[in-house]
Design a protein that fits this description.
Order of helices and strands: HHHHHHHHHHHH
Shape: globular
Number of helices: 12
Length: 279
């Protein structure tokens, strides 16, 4: 139960962090020098258990703030202006939701679970409302491509989405095995996270070796791939083909660029990614 609470809490927090980014993911906060911009999701080992594990924070509002995604969707300047208004409103409402749930960890378990359920329901409602507003700004073609990108970034968790599971006709036995694959991945992530905590600091801070964090990031990415492979083995060939069609053309999101100028974890002194240098 504790694990379930941790995963859900991290999902909500990570989603909020992502939508606080400027419309162009390569921008830094005003008044801050290089390497001191807002931390961006895709997080390194310091993100905690489940942090960035399967792209759970990759909701449409967050994805639309990433320049690489904007380019893929061919978002026009006029659309960017309109999107900024929608995303800013969503961001503020997300903050308000989070602000009303301080001290959640200190509540008794039954009250905490009830509060978490209320938070998740409120977030689903907010996302549904925001989707309607986004549909007024981006075209049907852009929306379809955004849906495909979202599925790709969600990774194995996409198979847990009710609409996806329904379309693929995933049965109870398959759902159980997918859960087992996800649990395995979470445990492997947790081991990496604990190992990095033992080295001190986060994201290259506190004297930790930046190279060690990069290595941990590579291991984490491999865990994501292995988890997906385990889940895909559960599906039939027909289900695998349907899922591949739903995801559309492969889109490789530059997560390193999303973490900002500070490199893994957003710490100071990291090298800028190739994508950021273009911005």
């Amino acid at each position: 139960m504790v694990r379930s609470f941790q995963s859900s809490w991290v999902c909500v927090v990570a989603a909020l962090v992502l939508v606080t980014l400027p419309l162009s993911a390569g921008e830094e906060s005003k008044g801050q020098g290089p390497g001191q911009g807002r931390r961006q999701v895709g997080g390194g080992p310091g993100g905690g258990p489940g942090g960035g594990f399967s792209g759970f924070a990759m909701e449409k509002p967050g994805l639309l703030r990433i320049e690489q995604v904007q380019k893929e969707l061919k978002i026009t300047d006029e659309q960017k202006t309109k999107l900024e208004a929608v995303l800013t409103s969503y961001q503020q409402k997300s903050r308000d939701q989070m602000g009303g749930n301080r001290g959640l960890r200190d509540l008794p378990q039954d009250e905490r679970e009830k509060k978490m359920k209320e938070m998740q329901d409120a977030r689903k409602t907010l996302l549904a409302e925001t989707d309607k507003e986004l549909a007024k700004v981006i075209t049907a073609e852009q929306t379809t491509r955004l849906d495909e990108i979202q599925l790709q970034q969600q990774g194995v968790e996409a198979l847990k989405n009710e609409p996806v599971a329904k379309k693929l006709e995933i049965n109870a036995d398959q759902a159980k095995k997918i859960d087992e694959a996800i649990t395995w991945g979470q445990e492997e992530q947790r081991k990496l996270f604990q190992g990095m905590r033992g080295q001190g600091g986060q994201g290259g801070q506190g004297g930790a070796d930046p190279a060690a964090f990069r290595q941990a990031q590579e291991k984490r990415d491999q865990v994501r791939k292995d988890t997906m492979a385990k889940a895909m083995e559960v599906l039939t060939k027909d289900q695998q083909e349907k899922f591949a069609k739903m995801k559309g053309k492969a889109f490789e999101l530059d997560r390193a660029a999303m973490r900002g100028p500070g490199g893994p974890g957003g710490g100071r002194g990291g090298k800028k990614s190739a994508e950021e240098k273009k911005v």
